[in-house]
Structure formats: C-alpha cells, structure tokens
Amino acid sequence: MKDIINNLSHPKIVNTILWIAFLIPFIIYSIFIFRYAVNIPYQDDYDVVLNFINTFIQMQTLEEKMALLFSQHNEHRIVFDRIIFLCYYYLFHEVNFRFFIIFGNLGWILTIIMLISYLKKNSEFSFDYLLPIPYILLLPIHHENMFFAMAAIQNYWFVFFVIIFLIYLSKDKKFLFFALFPIALFTSGGGIVLYPLGNLFLILRKKWWSFALFFILSTYFIALYFHGYDKPPYHPNIFETVLNPIRTIAYFFTFLGNIFIVPLSKLSLLTGFILCVLSTYFIFIKQKEDNYLWKLMICFVIFITLTTTITRSGFGIRQAVVSRYSLFPLLLLVCVYVFIISSISSTVAYRIILIFTIFFWAINAFIIEQNHFLLKMKEIRIASIVAFSQGDKASLLYPDQDLAAQILLTTERQHIYSYQDQRP
C-alpha cells in the first residue's frame, strides 16, 4: 500500500493526473457541442443569418452591401457575425448552422485557454491552482449561447476580443488595444462599455498620451456606431429603471449571481450581492500591478451588468436569469477566485475550493444530461423543420412563423440553405 502511494506521488504521475483533470471539462463540453448541435436555424438565426444572406447576395452596389453589413440588429451592430456568415457562404456556397455553433464555441474555448495562459505566465501559481478556472467557465449553464449559432459567435467571440483588449490596455500596448476596440464594438453592442472603462483607466493611470489617442479614436467609433441608431421599439423605457428602484437593484444583483443551471432568482440575487461585495473589496483594497487585468475584467462585468439593468430591467427579474447572460457572472467568479488564491496561503483552503468547484460542475453537467435537456432541445429543433417540410409552419422557432417560412423558402430557392436536407 505504501509503495502504491509513493508511486502515485511521483511527479510524472501527478502531472498526468492534473492534465487529465484539466482536460475533462473541455472534453465533456466538446461532447455536448458535437452531440447536440444541429444545422437548423433558431430564433434570430432566421433574420441574422438566412435573411441577411438572402438580401446581401441580391444587392448590386458596394455601398448597399456595406450599409447592410453595418446595419443595426436590435441594439447591436453584429459585423463580425455577418463577416463569418459571408465567408462561409462564399467558400462553400451554403449556410451551415452546426458549423457556426462550433465556431462560436471555439471563441469561448480560446478565451479560457488565453486566461489560463495569462495567469500562468504572469503569476507564481502552480498548474494545479489553475484547475478551477475551466470547471467554472465550462459550466453548461450558458447553454442558450452554446447552441444558438448567431449568439454563440456574437457573445463568445465578443468576450474573447474584450479580454485581449483588456490585456493590452493593462500593459499600455497602444496600437493593439486601439485596434481591438472597434472589433469588440462591432461584434456586440456590449463593447460600448469599453469606451468609459478604457478612458477612465488611462486617466487613473495618468497615461495622458495614450488617453488622448484612445479618446479620439474611441469617440469616433462610438459616433459611427450610433449614427442612424434606433432604439428597439419593444425595449422598456429607461425611465422604468428610475421609477422602480427596488426592481432595478434586484435585477442588478440577480444578473450578477446568475450561475445556476435552474433559474433561481432569489439565490442568484444573494450570490450576486456576495460577488459584488467581494469584487468591490478586491478592486479598492488590493493594490498590485499584476492584478490590473483582473480588476479591469471585474469592472467590465459590472459595467455590462449596469448597462443591461438600465436597458432591460423593465422586462422583469426573470429576464436577469436567462441562460445567455450567465457567462458574465462566471467571468466575475473567476476574477474573485484569482484574488482569493492570491490572498491566502492555505493549501487546505485551496483544496476545498477545488473540490467544491469540481463538484458544482459535475452536478450541473449531471442535471443537464440526466434530464435530457439538450437532447429535448435538439429534438424540438429537428421536429420544427420536419413539421415545416410537411406543410406545418406553426412549429418554426421564430416569433413570426409566416416570415420564417418565407425566409426558408427563399433560401431553399436560392440554394443557400436546404431545410429538406435536415430531416432525419
């Protein structure tokens, strides 16, 4: 028995075990994606992918095409999404939502790898201290993004570009974070928060030359973004936020605590409050240059939460716990974890955190698989297309089924996307 224990403690065996433990969440996450992703449009995919390409290929002038490329979708200008859709279409002469889903999730995987690599390079943490990060960020609670083609590309790659922007901003790599600002901004409307965040950070750091250049550049792109901007008609009035302060505050903390597979508003509110208190403490108490990135990430999540609260809290508290928003609280949770392990020297405390993180991940993965949630989602999408191919458009997963049917028929006629081929 003693020999077995000694053999298990051999450095090579320990490293192998650590690498296996590190790769498990990536493998399970990838299995989910490849098993349940289907080549079928869902919600905004009809408009953002199919109708966009239908319209784009019929336009004659470059001016018309550029106007469509930069046109507004809800409150966003999703130029990066559209470029990906067009590249795939012109390369393969078709649209494939399964590919878009996989490509979108690749952005999230790269984000996680980038954060871990940055932490490994810029800290003294051993590899085992990095283990909780993939288990946190690869929780399948943001499943709506995972299997929603346009949202996967928009949200995951947006975070990827934001993290690169913040890394270069924290290191004052001028031309690099200058270049990343418009890329993030025209990937998702959330990039707007980088405008106050970037300028304020440069002022506080007294980087006056960088501030002057970035202020001019970022102001230009913000003005370009809002040129011809129209507020989505179905969005609540911002005065709703002011007139309902209790609901607004509850929405803010609920959004920050949205880390559960089941939408639990009260538990999310409490979790969000705790994360907000811890984040505030680490921003204002800890003073170490190596922590600039993590402070900026915390501020980014807080700014995103504030913006979403102001513009969407009128929809009600339940809207704060939708699946697609959960990647932002998970990023905040990682930042808090980094500051906690930077502050404690107890190996026992770290091991407790690690065990709890893996257990929490395993429970969530088990629940989502045991309840066949993703399988049911896949079957519903397949059934919607099968029903439509048999003449029933009522099952199409889009608010306006008549418009969705028209879009599908047009794409079929123009050989962009064949719904007939998606039947099992």
Task: Tag the structure with descriptive keywords.
424 residues, mainly alpha
Structure in words:
The N and C termini lie far apart (54 Å). The chain has helices spanning 2-8, 11-36, 45-56, 62-69, 79-92, 97-121, 132-137, 143-146, 149-170, 174-185, 194-204, 208-226, 239-243, 245-256, 265-285, 292-312, 327-343, 347-370, 373-389, 401-413. Helices cover 70% and strands 0% of the residues. The protein has 20 helices and no strands. It is an all-alpha fold and 424 residues long. The longest helix has 26 residues, at 11-36. The protein has one domain. Helix 6 (97-121) packs parallel to helix 9 (149-170) and helix 15 (265-285) packs across helix 17.
Shape: globular
> Mean of the pLDDT scores?
86
Please give the domain count.
Answer: 1
Helix content: 55-70%
Indicate the structural class.
mainly alpha
Based on CA atoms alone, the radius of gyration comes out at 23 Å
Poorly predicted runs are none
Summarize this structure briefly:
The chain is mainly α and 424 residues long. It contains 20 helices and no strands.
SSE layout:
Layout: H1 2-8, H2 11-36, H3 45-56, H4 62-69, H5 79-92, H6 97-121, H7 132-137, H8 143-146, H9 149-170, H10 174-185, H11 194-204, H12 208-226, H13 239-243, H14 245-256, H15 265-285, H16 292-312, H17 327-343, H18 347-370, H19 373-389, H20 401-413
Helix pairs in contact: 3-5, 3-20, 6-9, 9-10, 9-16, 10-12, 11-12, 14-15, 14-16, 15-17, 16-17
